[in-house]
């Protein structure tokens, strides 16, 4: 087997069915990308227009960032696919740990100390 | 297991996970990225805690330029898409396309990094040194850490592209290209939060 690892292939073993599936997936990825560009422009417009109050803008752009996080993780990094159980549990536990870390650091060095 | 991959019909459908080594790299990459999530969280928390401590120096709203940040964001987002397209080309055994999209990713990454260096030089000339204020230190550390990740990613993909320039997709290089694409998407996710939390909130708040 080891000698096969560096062997290149004449063709792919994909069946026509698999090829159709992968091409469809690729189109969905491009749509997800267009959507990400759209919400990025929306976030910049919300701040750049200077028409909206900060109480609205900040939760709004944080929400857009969260939507983009989900799109990147689940589409571009394929967490939505099957056989991604362990990757899902690693990334989710990372995020679950990250949230209280950010909050406690803001409280400890931002509010308590000053 | 390596022995179960059927190679008689050509490249397996998911070449990055066809061998045990590939599967381990795939899983190990996610363990690493989960650790990176928590590391970046500490830097974000520190920045958010210290960003009001400007010590009479330049403030976020005086420095940040939306057009420059917008261009950098678009460049990095696009490079994320090109690495997705590279991985699809890899799965379809189209090695030339894989190389082409990875080179595009590399060039977009280089232009992103050049803009970031230009940005830092500009801020320095506006009087924001690394030790000017608590805001300055935490800003340079957070954004600089992201820039260092981009630099590392560029070295990584350059090495892969040079080493495998003439080999075609194999079971040993497919997991490596795939791991790079995961890393690159993660860098993009971090940037999404940097442009939101650092730049947009710095200007809008």
UniProtKB/TrEMBL annotation, chain A:
Organism: Natribacillus halophilus
A cellular component term, taken from the record's GO annotations: plasma membrane
Membrane topology: Multi-pass membrane protein
Superkingdom to which the source organism belongs: Bacteria
InterPro entries: Cyt_c_oxidase_su4_prok
The protein, known as: Cytochrome c oxidase subunit 4
Protein keywords: Cell membrane, Membrane, Transmembrane, Transmembrane helix
Residue ranges crossing the lipid bilayer per the database entry: 28-48, 54-77, 89-112
Chain intervals with Polar residues compositional bias: 1-15
Localization annotation: Cell membrane
Region (Disordered): 1-20
Tagged with keyword Protease: no
Pfam families: COX4_pro
This protein's record includes keyword Transmembrane: yes
Automatic annotation (TrEMBL), chain B:
Biological process according to GO: aerobic electron transport chain
InterPro entries in the record: Cyt_c/ubiquinol_Oxase_su3, Cyt_c_oxidase-like_su3, Cyt_c_oxidase_su3-like_sf, Cyt_c_oxidase_su3_a-hlx
Keyword flag Transmembrane helix: yes
GO MF annotations, alphabetized: cytochrome-c oxidase activity
Swiss-Prot/TrEMBL keywords: Cell membrane, Membrane, Transmembrane, Transmembrane helix
Subcellular location: Cell membrane
Protein name from the UniProt record: Cytochrome c oxidase subunit 3
Organism: Natribacillus halophilus
